[in-house]
């Protein structure tokens, strides 16, 4: 009798383990699910802000889906969240997506989000007036090897100036873009490689000088500045939900391009809620001119960017991104 009871308990426990192993990264109860979408509080990620504010995600996914949102300060923390199942999808810079893909992370770029938006500025009083003056100075980016970092260092290498990471003279610091103004004021850094709208904040409110414009920096007008990503497992296991997320994303981009003033107001509100910083309409207007919004992805530019990341020693091996991009949801 005791033996039969023990076997029954063992079977119940085993079934529980098997059920847990088969569950999705999104929580579900009686047909209802909770999914989490990620993005950054900057202008390259406006499609996520608009889709959230206008209810496009909810409209596409349906009432049985509870949607939660999580913002990130940099691509590394975003990619960690994607790997661990903390988020199901979201917007991130192409650099982190590529870097993590090369180390075996299960990630798929399923749509573009924006282009442009990376500006290089010098602190007032730094003595920097030209690109050549940056040699020997300290620059800041959100993260080592992030999209903005690769764009800047590619440009600088072509000018014959490299960072001390690769034997050159420039020193690098990293930090949240919303903190760059304070770092300029303290004199801790000389050059900021800033995504919008923080570039416009530095220019308009801190008196920083634009040294390399968004249309000049490497890959500035051709590389996706943000991409919509998910995991390959999500694509295989729940392609219907991924299609719904992409459809909401496309709705948002259409809204942005047709209603820029309304999109700007949404951006100002969302950034203040997420960062506590209230940006003026003038700052947003200035930043908007450096950004383009599209869900298309240029695979050749993604590969060229990856090759440059390898050349700059951010990647250990020559990358092959032929399987990174999946355009089935936007075609």
From TrEMBL:
InterPro entries associated with the record: ABC_SsuA_sub-bd, NrtA/CpmA_ABC-bd_dom, Solute-binding_3/MltF_N
Residue ranges of every copy of the Solute-binding protein family 3/N-terminal domain listed in the record: 34-263
Main localization, broad class: membrane
Signal peptide, first to last residue: 1-26
Entry keyword set: Cell inner membrane, Cell membrane, Lipoprotein, Membrane, Palmitate, Signal, Transport
Gene Ontology, cellular component aspect: periplasmic space; plasma membrane
UniProt xrefs under SUPFAM superfamilies: Periplasmic binding protein-like II (SSF53850)
One Pfam family, short name: NMT1_2
Stored Gene3D superfamilies: Periplasmic binding protein-like II
PROSITE patterns for this protein: PROKAR_LIPOPROTEIN (PS51257)
MF GO annotations: ATPase-coupled transmembrane transporter activity
Subcellular location: Cell inner membrane; Periplasm
Membership in a protein family: Belongs to the bacterial solute-binding protein SsuA/TauA family.
NCBIfam families for the chain: SsuA_fam
Stated name of the protein: ABC transporter substrate-binding protein
Protein's organism: Paraliobacillus quinghaiensis
């Amino acid at each position: 009798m005791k033996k039969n009871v023990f076997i029954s308990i063992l079977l119940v426990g085993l079934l529980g383990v098997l059920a847990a192993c088969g569950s999705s990264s999104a929580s579900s109860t009686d047909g209802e699910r909770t999914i989490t979408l990620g993005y950054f509080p900057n202008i390259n990620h406006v499609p996520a802000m608009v889709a959230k504010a206008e209810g496009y995600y909810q409209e596409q996914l349906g009432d049985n889906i509870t949607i939660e949102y999580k913002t990130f300060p940099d691509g590394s923390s975003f990619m960690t969240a994607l790997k661990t199942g903390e988020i199901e999808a979201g917007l991130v810079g192409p650099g982190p997506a590529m870097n993590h893909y090369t180390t075996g992370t299960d990630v798929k770029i399923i749509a573009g989000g924006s282009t442009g938006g990376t500006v290089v500025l010098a602190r007032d009083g730094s003595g920097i007036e030209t690109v050549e003056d940056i040699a020997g100075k300290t620059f800041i980016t959100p993260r080592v090897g992030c999209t903005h970092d690769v764009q800047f260092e590619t440009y600088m290498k072509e000018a014959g100036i490299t960072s001390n990471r690769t034997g050159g003279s420039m020193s690098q610091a990293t930090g949240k873009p919303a903190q760059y103004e304070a770092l300029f004021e303290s004199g801790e850094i000389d050059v900021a490689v800033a995504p919008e709208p923080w570039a416009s904040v530095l220019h308009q409110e801190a008196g920083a000088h634009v040294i390399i414009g968004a249309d000049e920096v490497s890959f500035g007008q051709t590389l996706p500045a943000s991409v919509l990503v998910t995991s390959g497992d999500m694509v295989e296991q729940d392609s219907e939900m991924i299609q719904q997320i992409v459809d909401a994303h496309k709705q948002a981009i259409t809204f942005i391009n047709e209603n820029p003033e309304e999109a700007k107001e949404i951006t100002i509100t969302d950034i203040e809620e997420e960062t506590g910083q209230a940006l003026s309409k003038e700052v947003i207007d200035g930043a908007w001119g450096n950004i383009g919004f599209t869900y298309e992805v240029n695979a050749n530019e993604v590969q060229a960017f990856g090759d440059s990341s390898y050349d700059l020693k951010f990647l250990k091996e020559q990358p092959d991104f032929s399987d990174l991009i999946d355009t089935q949801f936007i075609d």
